[in-house]
């Protein structure tokens, strides 16, 4: 058990260093297990996409994929991942065939009982660092305006129940995922203070270290809000002020806190100049896989690399010339250019030595 634990950890560290190489297969997979979603967000269009459940990858195909390609970090997203009836089985397959060190899953928190039940099953597979984030980016009326349905109480209840699971299991942590958007910009401090007071009644000391911060930006799935150039400039200016407040008060307790704070710090550079603060390692450190087996460089760069069915589920069979071309496009900042945690965290890790020195 201990030998496997340290072997997997050393394996991940080696993969992080190798992610800077041109011919290296990524160690992280961002996998949208379903596009089904029970939110109706006014900043996201995923819930409006056509869905084809019968065309989603089967468990047999997922098992085959995991047997061949040894990811160390798995991010299961959506849609709403917990609407997938196969979510726990997917994690089970991953725990059996992958040298996993990190598993993270976002949720909107709306089906609390099902989320908590499935989460505990997932946690028991003993993936060393298992994280579930609950999307909550506004209080009652603001939440309704952003998410399109009245789910504030359910989402907060889910967070509280997952928080208590974190006290029970050492390999599990939960965070509130807060996205700054034109619909809530300027309200972060009030949100944190309000949630702090609410959760104090549950004996939970809620602070900025319990928040995972994101910022709305132009992308394939953030298309619900159209901002004129001056409106976007004004929004980014206000968002930067909130980020500065966050950075001033956000404490660091471990490596993951450091990466999170660096990620938010780099948001300032991105928002102020629409340029990537560090080299993006998408398609080097990570791929994005949609529910149907189509592979892309990242969640925002939706130029299709291939279908897993066309390469017999073996990433080693990807067209090297195409992959090199896509990586060069990313290196030259000719991709859609984004700064999201789906890609930024591993880009920071891959250049950690430079950042620390």
Automatic annotation (TrEMBL):
Biological source species: Candidatus Kuenenbacteria bacterium CG08_land_8_20_14_0_20_37_23
InterPro entries from the UniProt entry: Aldolase_TIM, Radical_SAM_PqqE_MftC-like, rSAM, rSAM_sf
Domain Radical SAM core, first and last residues per copy: 33-163
GO molecular function annotation: catalytic activity; iron-sulfur cluster binding; metal ion binding
Family matches, as SUPFAM superfamilies: Radical SAM enzymes
Record carries keyword Magnesium: no
Alphabetically ordered keywords of this record: Iron, Iron-sulfur, Metal-binding, S-adenosyl-L-methionine
Classification lineage: Bacteria, Candidatus Kueneniibacteriota
The protein's name in its UniProt record: Radical SAM core domain-containing protein
Transmembrane segments: none
